[in-house]
Amino acid sequence: MSTPWRAFPLVDADDGAQSNGCNAPTPNEVNVMTAPQVETVSTTADKTRLIAAGALLLGGLVAFYLLSAQGPYAQWAALLLLLGGAVAAFFTSEPGKALIAYGRESVKEFYKVVWPTRKEAGQMTGYVFAFVVVMALFLWLTDKTLEWVLYDLVLGWKR
Q1: pTM of the predicted protein model
Q2: Which of 11-15, 71-75, 106-110, 144-148 is predicted with the least confidence, judged by mean pLDDT?
């Protein structure tokens, strides 16, 4: 008769660490996995850049509406100029640099994707269409059956 758990510690062949014989994480691993990773803006320079970006963004919106008497070219020029300044201020801060790094990593991952061939894509599309037709027929048949049972048999409302 085998027991569902092991009473003695096992040594993992990969790293020599002791385990309890199951794949459950230890309490320390659970704390690491569930601990939220909160990133905060820590330096005054980053806070200043983010405040400047927000102020430039708000200034661009305000300038757009205040310059309505000057014409659309002045409005759009002011909006785009201040919006560009806000974007530049944001991307020079740490969160902006982290966003750029995230984008670069995303592009690298995109190139790692193995895309299906034309034949495979056509086959998968055919499977989806066939499934949709089968489900449509099933739902139609179910609807008509329930309609017949409820209206004709139960309620007696014959047409």
Answers
A1: 0.50
A2: 11-15
pLDDT tens per residue across span 96-151: 999 999 999 999 999 999 999 999 999 999 999 999 999 999 999 999 999 999 98
d(C-alpha 122, C-alpha 65), whole Å: 51
Q: Which alpha helices (H) appear in 10-43, and where do they start and end?
A: 27-34
Using an 8 Å Cβ cutoff, are 79 and 64 in contact?
Answer: yes
**Three-state SS sequence of 79-138:** HHHHHHHHHHHHHCCHHHHHHHHHHHHHHHHHHHCCCCCHHHHHHHHHHHHHHHHHHHHH
- The single residue listed with the structure tokens 């449509």 is 136
Instruction: Find all residues with CB under 8 Å of 152, minimum gap 6, and list them.
Output: 158
